[in-house]
Amino acid sequence: MNSISASRQRLRGIMMGNAAILSVAWLASAFIAEATLQAVGTTYYVAIDGQDGNDGKSLKTPFRRIQKAAEVMQPGDMVLIRGGEYREKIVPARGGTSEQVRITYRNYGDEKPVIKGSERVTTWSDEGGGVWKADLPRTFFNSSPYNPFATKAGGHCIINPGNKWSIGMVFLNGASLGERLSLAEVQNTPRTWWATDENGTTVVHARFDADPNAGVAEVSVRNSCFHPGDKVLNFISIVGLTMKQASPNGSGPIYPQQGIITAYAGRGWIIEGCSVSDSPCAGIALATGPESWYNAKSATVNAKGSEPDFNASGFHRVRRNTIERCGQVGIVGMISGHSSVIEMNLVQDINTERKLGGAETAGIKLHWAIDTVIKNNIIRRVFSGKEAGQNFGLWLDFACQGTRVTGNVIYDIVDPPKSTPKCFPIYLEANVGPIVVDNNIIIKHPDGPWNNELGSLYSIVAHNLMLEARIQQFNDPTRNVPYYQPNSLKFIATLDAKSASDKNKFRYVNKNNIYVGPYSDQDGATITGGNVKYDGTAQQKMAFTRTDTAAGVDITFDMTGMSPLPRCDLVTSQQLGEFPLVKQRVTDGDGKPYDMDTDIMGRSRQKSPIPGPFALLAHGKNVFAFTAGSTASSFIAPNGKQSP
Question: Which whole-number Å values give the CA distances from 555 to 24, 212, 381, 443, in the listed order?
Fold first, then answer.
C-alpha cells in the first residue's frame, strides 16, 4: 500500500461527547508522517536575535531570517522558528521528495512566530483633525514585485467596480483601516486611509485619531508571505506559523492564483495549525501553473497538449488553520487542489469591507476539486460586494467529481443590500459529480436567501441539518462540463445538452435530512426518503440558539415535547449504485466505497438511523460546542493522545 493509500485509510476524524451535552472537538486525520514532526535530516533554527552568518544548527547559533533557512534546507530538513516578528517573504528554494522526506517550516515549541508582509512606518506627520501623512519612496516597496498602493485589485471573474480599489492595506496596532477614495472622505471618517502617487512617491493619508508614531503603524508591502514563485515544489509542511498583512492580488480560475500562502502547482503540501489573515484577496492558494486555462479540455492538458500527470500535483492537507479577514476568499484552488483534504479550519470574516464583487468571493472556492474532502470546517461571516457579485460559504465550481462535503458548520453568509444574484452557504456550479454533501449544519442568515443550490448531474444530500434553509438540486445543460475516469484527470468527454437533460441519467439524492423553519423544503430531488420537516412553530418550540465563540460555535436545541425522530434507511454506496457516464460509485480517492454510517461526530450509525447529522439526540436539551481553527482547545488523535 502506498503512502497516500495508507493515509486515506486513516481518514476517520471523530469528535468526543456525551448524549445530552456534547463538547465537540473534531479530530485531525492521521495524515502527518513522523517526518513532519521530526526531521529525518538536519534541524535548523531561526530567531529574531540570530545571525545569517551562523550555521543555524543549534539554539545558540540560529539564523536571523527564515529565508536563509529556506535557501540551505534539503529534503528531510526542518526549520524551527522562535517567537517574534519576521518581516519577510519566504521563497523556498526546494521541496521534499516524498511524504516521509519533506521540508518542514514550523514553530519552535509553543512559541508564536509571526511572518508579516507589511513594514512599519514611523515617519508620520500630523495633518490635523486626527489625520496623519506618510511619504513612501519607490525603494520602500523593493521587496515586492509591485507597489500594492499603486496596484488595483483584479483577476479573472473578479469585479473591482470602477477599478477604484487598490490592494494596499494600512494597520494600527494590528487592526486594519478601511480604504477611501479621497482625502475628504478620510478627514470625515475615522480609521480610514487614502493613497496617491506624487512624482513616484506614494503618499498615504490616514485618520488614526491617535499618534501612529507612538503605536505600531504598518503598511502592506510584499505580495505574499510564503510563495515558491514559478517553481513547482512538492512535500512542503508549514506548521504552527502566523502569516499576515501581505497583499496578493485577486485569484480567479485562471493563472495566477496567489495568497498569503501559495502552493503554486506542487503536490503534498501540509498547512496545519497556522493563522493566516489580513489579505486584500486570498488567504491560502492551492494554485495552478500557467499551462492550465479555463476551458473544459485544455484545463486538463499541459502545454505540450498531453494528459497531465494526476500524481504530480494536489494531495494537499489544509487543516486546523484560522483563515480570516481576507477581502476575496479564505481558501482558493484550481486543479492543483485535487485529492486534497481541507478540514477543521475556521474560515471567517471574508470581504467585510465589501469592496470586491464578481464570481470568486467565498469562504472556500475550488475548481476541479476532484476527490477532495472538505470536512469539519466552520465557515462564517462571508459578505457580498457592495456593488456587484456573489458570495458563498463553500463554492465548488466546475468539474468537481468524487468530492465530499461532510461535517461542516456554515452560517452567516450575508448579502446586506440583497442585490447580488446569489448568496448561499453551499453552491455547486457546473459539475457532473458525483458530489456528496452529508452531515453538515447549515444555518440561514436573516439577510441571506434560504436555499443552497447544488449544480451537479449527480449529487447526494444526506443527514444534514438545515435551519431555515433548503437544498435545490439542478444541472446546467449549457456549461459543457468535463468529466473524467474516476480518481484521475483522464478526460472522457464533456456533458452534452442531450445527456444533461436525460432524466434517466441525472440523479439527485435527498435523504435523511432535517429541515427546520418556514422555508424547510427541497426541490429537484429524483430520489428522496427519510427527510423530516419542522415548520416555524416547531422551530420556536425547539428554541434553536447559536452562540459564536472565538474558536467556534455553540448550537443548542430542545427536543422536549417533540415526536421521536423516525428511523430511516442507511445510505450506502451499494444502495446508490454506479452513476452513469462517469461509471463511478460513491468512493474515496483510492476508489474504496464508503457509506453514510458515521455522524458529524464520527460515531457509528445504526442500520436504521435517525435523520440529521447526529446518530443520537437527547429527548431534552441538546448542546453542541464546535471548535475549529488554530486556537481550538482540544484535538485528540485516534490513539487518544493530544495531537501536536
Answer: 11, 41, 16, 11
